[in-house]
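Internal ticket - ligand job 426, pyridoxal-5'-phosphate:
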Amino acid sequence: MKSMYERCCDVMPQVANRATKLGIIDSDGCYLYTEDGRKVLDFASGVAVNNLGNKNPEIVEAIKKQLDTMIHVGHNVVYNESYVELAEKLVELTGGDTKVYFSNSGAEVNDGAMKLAKYVTKRPAIIAFRNSFHGRTIGSLSITGSSSSYRKNYEPLMPAVYWADYANCHNCPFGKIKGKCSMECIKQFDSIFAKLIAPECVAAIIVEPVQGEGGYIVPPKEFLEGLRDICDKNGIMLIFDEVQTGIGRTGHLYAYQTAGVKPDILTSAKALGGGIPLGAIIAKKEIMDKWPAGAHGGTFGGNPLACAAGLKTLEIIERDDLLENCRIQGEYFKNKLLELQKKYPKYIGDVRGIGLMVAMELIDENGDPNPEITATIKQKALDKNLLLLICGSDHNVVRFIAPLIVSQSEIDEAMDIIEEIFNDFA
Ligand SMILES: Cc1ncc(COP(=O)(O)O)c(C=O)c1O
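stdout (structure tokens):
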């Protein structure tokens, strides 16, 4: 009998670059069950979607309950309780001075956020960062700078996009050493504004508060503070793309709370809908109030099932103190990886992360990115039933996206597998 992967090849294009050939028939907590009888420890979480683990029974129940009343009603047409309640909850959790607009995906909310910034400022330009990932629609792809393969043959993309370098202190794009720099990542804006685009023509700076696909790069707080300052001085909207960092992943509901720097506009998706497609643009009230009826829209935004699942997700995160678990387990995980790095410094160039966004960067004998060994580690881990993903624009970072419910023993299980792989190399 053909596997799901083989059947898929018969009827679907290869375009959606899949990380494995696993066919999943059931799931539970931190584990996936495959069609060929394997039980796999899932540290991919559907790419940072299943933050409460797989098939959380309370989310399943919340969806079933919502299903008894309606499936879809359409937010361009009517209102429904879960939709309004989730927006109220998100406003409460983001300081009470915001409003929420629902869409379906990360790319869609990033497109919407740029439209909002352009609409309100009446300015054309957007500044994005190299090595960023914001999605695959023409709009969000235009501000994605992590791989030319995403953009190949799709040019011309959205015009008036300008690029800045991200604060990557481990591999500083300005050649500086961490702690011994003059924040060139902020100073670069003087040159961008003088030579490329006048600040009064810039609608927004869009940034991931922790770069995800770009390599799980945690910038210093001063970088985000510096961006906030630049935006304040020049009437530019600061957009945080929290599609991957949101819903508890960094140890606070949103990474802006971890960093202590508030954006004007925040985008959220992935884990927001508890596994059902849902995205939200969350922006300051005074900005949202300048976006009139008809200036943006969409059929499926804020689907009742997604909102019910989202509400239950937020309720469980709060009730079970999962942000605290995220911080504790994330620290434990990172320390374990740091111990491993001490043992294998010639392979592991860096260990980094915040909350349960944890990663290790793999290098070769010259200290350069080592995508080959990274791919080998991912494959060997999968052979031993640990599902991991790779990131980094040089494809040399293994990222660990454990759900926020992860226990120490599940991290130990993963670490045993990783250690075995390194022992084999040695
Ligand atoms: C930071 C970030 N923004 C946007 C996206 C795009 O989200 P979606 O795939 O839901 O369009 C992703 C997806 O990985 C992401 O990590």
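Auto-summary: Residues 322-343 form the longest helix (22 residues). DSSP finds 15 helices and 15 strands in the chain.
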